[in-house]
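The aim of this short unit is practical: by the end, you should be able to scan a pair of folded records and say something sensible about each. We start with the first protein, listed as its amino acid sequence and then its structure tokens.
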Amino acid sequence: MKLNTLSSLILVAGIALLSCSSGTTSSTAQVEDTLQDTLGYPEEHVNWKLGAQAYTFRLFTFAEALDKIDSADLRFVEAFPGQIVGAGNEEKFTYTLSEEGRDLVRKLLADHNITLHAFGVVNGKDAEEWEQIFAFAQDMGVKVINCEPKEEHLDIVSTLCEKYDIRAAIHNHPEPSTYWKPEVVLAALEGRSPKMGAAVDVGHWMRSGLDPVECLKKLEGKIIHSHFKDLNEFGDKKAHDVHWGTGKLPINEVIEELKRQNFDGMLSAEYEYNWENNQIDVAQSVRNFRELLAASTN
């Protein structure tokens, strides 16, 4: 789809929305459904899995987070340890989750048509706990564990990746955390399981004053997962999330670099701002992203 055609469609949809006599939620939904039918899911054409990190909705239960993710028209979720399951279950979403709790999570996912693709950011205190984390992930169908292992645990994680056939992706928090720059991640991956890679957080790179496109290039062939965000400032650790495509992230260049590398993992929307009502921010970011991606592939 050409960009001018896409923009025209959005304009028409907006006019249609304004012309709705009642201004009801159902009328809005009809217009959005029409727009989505035309846009489709452009991420599928490049084999990307667009979803959300449940931490975005950390003030709510996992069940409530799924409602919000579903309403943002996303079909994948990255769960995080510690979130209350909800829907009548007060357990936390960790490897200690009971069989009843696990069954409930599976039902909630199926009811929302959302796939649990990743789990993190999580760490084990020793080999035994790492094993429990991997066993839990395998039982829940998780494909990627996002983590920041201690240096002495890297070989443990590498071995467990092979044993459980699960990928482990090293995540970067901002400087001065251990893995804040790509060179440290690359050194950690050297000589270890090919199932280990990087979970790149483009926003945290920006907070650390690193060019996200250059960082992606340095990690070529190692990128398994991404925490995706756009920020209002560059090089400022206090920078906050804004709608994708409206901040300092060179989003078009990031999209093109991921495409060039044939990235085929999950992009987790992680919107850590406006915590009490950020579903609307995630939904708008997703719409912006799909428009930009559709324009770049046509």
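Turning to the second protein, read its sequence before its tokens, just as you did above.
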Amino acid sequence: MCPENESDTLVEAALRVLNTEDPFEKAGLGDSVASKWLDGTITLPYNPSLDLPVPDRPARLTNVKLVSPSLMPKLGKAGSLQSRQAIVHSLVHTESWAIDLSWDIIARFGKQEAMPREFFTDFVKVAQDEGRHFTLLAARLEELGSSYGALPAHDGLWDSAIATSKDLLSRLAIEHCVHEARGLDVLPATISRFRNGGDNKTADLLETVVYPEEITHCASGVKVVQVALFEENEVVIQKFHAIVRTYFRGPLKPPFNEAARKAAGFGPQWYEPLAIKEAAPDCQLVN
């Protein structure tokens, strides 16, 4: 793990997190950096005189076998131990990428877009939450008799991060308002499956920690999109639709968790039109 430097700006510290290979060390370093920003030990978001490169892909260990999303085995419905292990492993992997996504937003776009201090604080809090989610879920996976890296995973989440690496609004729209919002849609059913399978400990972890905090993470993305576009709400939504249709393949998948999405700051006019396939000029459906 890259040692902390007391003179680091927040962007420099974010890069240290991104360049840390071990996800457990990454989560620990991220928690420390976040605490120092929030208590005022780190005071500067970035140094304008420094031009620090942000890696296209964060440092990662090679212990997780990566496969195409289409080749991922079915996770099941949490009715068996094997299924519960697979679902929690998938969640752990997602949270490991969520840590990197949050610090990447700070390092990649903070200086470039001259964002206000509130922007950095919002995503520092998101990053700290994601690190805690990773650590708690990885520990739960161990209790279930497995470990991170024991099962295959895919990196589709980071593929979309690369595709949106040049534009902050596109990154936030896809990662927070599409992918993270999708998590809000499926988590209640996942929680119910664990309860039905007799695993109340995992269900409680998801219901009391992960689920409510993911709503706030989605809200952070929605807020920046709304503030950055600063136009009438109808125009903001139109631009959001254009971004999603550019960077997300296919329609959004219902059913939608309307209550959680509303709590995150966006109503059905944001996402319901995206659940319908657009027709091409020749009236053929777009693939």
